[in-house]
Amino acid sequence: MNAYRFWFNRKRLLDQPLEILLSNPQIDLPFCLMWANENWSRRWDGSDDDLLIAQDYRSEDDEALVDCFARYLRDPRYIHFDGRPVLMVYRPGTIPDAPAAFVRWRTLFRTRHGLDPLFVMGQAFGDENPDLFGLDGAIEFPPHKVVSNCNLINDEITLFDNDFSGQVYDYGEVVDKALAQPRTPFPLIRTAAPSWDNDARRQGKGLVLHGSTPELYERWLSGLIEQAQSRTFFREPVVCINAWNEWAEGAYLEPDQHFGSAYLNATARACTGAGKNRSRAGILLIGHDAFPAGAQRLLLETGRTLKHCFGAEIQFLLLDGGALLDEYRNVAPTEIVTVGSKTTPARLEYLRRQGFQSAILNSAASSALAPHLADAEIGFLFLIHELPALLRSRNLHTPMEKACTLARHVIVPAQNVAKRLGLETLNNLKILPQGLYTEAPFSLQARLTIRRGMGLGTADRIIIGAGYADLRKGFDLFLQLWRKMQDAVHCVWLGDIDPSLKNNLHVELNGALSSGTFHMPGRVDNVPAWLAAADVFALTSREDPYPSVVLEALAAGLPCVAFEETGGIPELLQQIDSETDHRNSIVPFADIPAMANAAHKLATWSSERSSRERQKTARAAAQRFSFRHYVQELLSLALPAIPKISVVIPSHNYAHYMSRRLSSIFAQTVAVFEIIVLDDASDDNSLEIARQTAKDWDREIICIENTMPSGSVFKQWHKAVRIARGDWIWIAEADDFCEPEFLERILDGIKNKPAVVMAFTDSRTVDEDGAPIFPSYRAYYAESAGLLMENDSHFTGESFLRGCLSERNLVLNVSSALFRKKHLLTAINGCQTDLKTLRVAGDWRIYLELLTQKNVEVIYLAQPLNVHRRHGNSVTHTLSRRNHIDEVAYMHRLLASRLALPETHISRQKHYCAILEQQFGLNPHNASKKVLPLS
After folding, report:
1. Residue 568's closest CA among 551, 582, 592?
2. Is the pTM of this model over 0.90?
3. Interatomic CA distance for residues 136 and 206, integer angstroms
4. Whether residue 434 has pLDDT greater than 60
5. Which CATH code for domain 444-624?
6. Which of 100, 316, 362, 919 is most buried, with most CB under 10 Å away?
7. What percent of the chain has pLDDT over 70?
8. How high is the pLDDT of residue 928?
9. Beta-carbon contacts of residue 105 (< 8 Å; ≥ 6 apart)
10. What is the DSSP letter of 928?
11. Start and end residues for every CATH 3.40.50.2000 domain found in the chain
12. Residue 142, SS3?
């Protein structure tokens, strides 16, 4: 802790906290002092205006000054560098003849107290070089100095105070400039600030660092910490933070209502290095605003699903705010950027360096950012949710065309949408119908409740429409539809109405509402209940690419009627009708009589169905519109280098370890396709802990429970490989855990190596309580494989078997390995007979079958990224010692036969069995040998 010391001409102020600290030596708080040696004025900046207390620097006060500080410097908790207490002085430039003054004070400290303090100056008010004052070093004091080369952004922000004359800087640019500063020729303590806004003290004339986020602050602090390792301060790596609780200047780490403890957590990550484990495969989700409409909600739910289902690292960038902004921020870090801002290109470049090398550009309304993404070398998917009329009304056609040429993929929901936009011939076009992010199951109870609330019975028929009621959505056409059908049905529109359209339709609308058969409940939270109450959904849009509400209607079991050539929905309805017994209807554009006739027929058919029939139809539609599948497709397109990885956790009574195991999987720096907990009839609370841990992390897991124990861990492996849907499988045993970059490093190793079927890392070992046992298995590897596994290695399957598996199994823990699923399944299927009897060597047997397949390869990483927990409950420790050796001997014979091993290998096999007998006490006459971990 660095605390201000207020001392004015022998007068001490605000010294009670320090006195409490000094009088309570049991408080373990290292501290040092900074003499706040400026005048006190009401302006809080040391000026002479409205002076409260002055600093006069009288020579007769020197001894009193030194004696006062020496009292604190002698405290055992006082911070020293190179054996010397550090004493900071805020403004040496205000001290008359400062070099001579410091010479006097050094002499007094030495002669009166035997102290030789390091004098350190604050870099502020234009004073930066301590050599000019005869001082030992300096400390940064942001925002002083760090904003000197930054651009004012006053013209880029909205000011509510027309008289504001302060200075506003972009926090992100400040961070960039601060980290780029060259090394100084004098000792310097670098400093980061969580934020800064002292306008509360300056009233319209303050200095503001605008746009701080915990992520940006963490980057600043992490960068300074990294620099401090080589730019030490008197042989110590030191970094400071301004400040803990400067609330009046907006510089504080203490929790607040908006960010909570996010800045403290960012500080912890920076200090521990945990922030370095950030993914190199993050995705930026870019939208035009946070208005509560279809495209915006789609982006929000895409982000939510990327995190919840796959663990992807995401960040939202929006071009404007809106009512959904807080919801975006609850899902992931969210920033508002300006396309024309000078700081936006630098911000994108920084995000790319942070690992956000891919983006999803959601909507043509966001397309103006596409050139900036390309300049920052961020590849992006371009999702288009608009059609020509909207593009024309907002002048979006030109930026959309430019974005199409720059995008990795251009994605539209239907072929008809591509046709309407003139994009059918694009080489990078991808047709990807969006999924349904809102569950809308049919509920008979909800149907009856809504109808009772409307005063309707079961025989009354309801036609429903939804959306923001404007001309594009065809609300006026919906009103005409009601007029055509008013004697036969009730018409309901869900959603707000455009004020200008409401005004233009005032007379018509009032007449409809007063009829008792036209209903406008406005925007409602229980849309599924209203859909359940209806009999037909009418899409009256003049132009609508792929409205989610139609998917909701279909997933509620409703038949739909729509105009042809209005977007992707007619195409979808035709496809559904051709593949199922569901009924929908497409009518000529704006043909209200035709729509009325079709709606009437559909309503009759719909109302005559049983609830069971409607529920069956609804479930089939919901499965068809899987939002998880849609987002997974986006993920694969955005991050094509990351394959589908299935993580399977076999577990039996491992409740004690389950939370740690799952947490280490959730913390992986790359996205995974699925996480399956495969419980083998545990009688503890393993599954309960698994589900709670997933809930705490807001992650999705699949729990599969055996009702009876399988009796074999390798049966569970076989089951795991059969049910896994990914291309690669990680059998992550429940009692182990791993480093956050485990998967990322393995994926780096197998990149562009299509023949690799198995990749594994070295492991460190811990006991059942997590205490370290061995830092690595490399010493054990060397006994059998020499130097083959001393460094990262790439083997053919056969060479790995001969060099690393012919004497003993050097893949000591399956948790350390990633397998290509189809090859592993072939291997397990090929040795089922042996797996019925092998209890310990079954994994060894599977590896033999796997690596004797044609043209296969193995990758080994020498860094111990896996953590193997060794305890008495493992299969290895519960098997009888004689059976253990018998299984090893069986594997030796099988390997010798399959690989035609030379006599030298067979001799080594026999020697290894002898070592085991010696270790197990089965043959005490064997020669002793160093014993290391067994498989």
Report:
1. 551
2. no
3. 32
4. yes
5. 3.40.50.2000
6. 362
7. 95
8. 40
9. 62, 65, 66, 119
10. P
11. 278-431, 444-624
12. coil
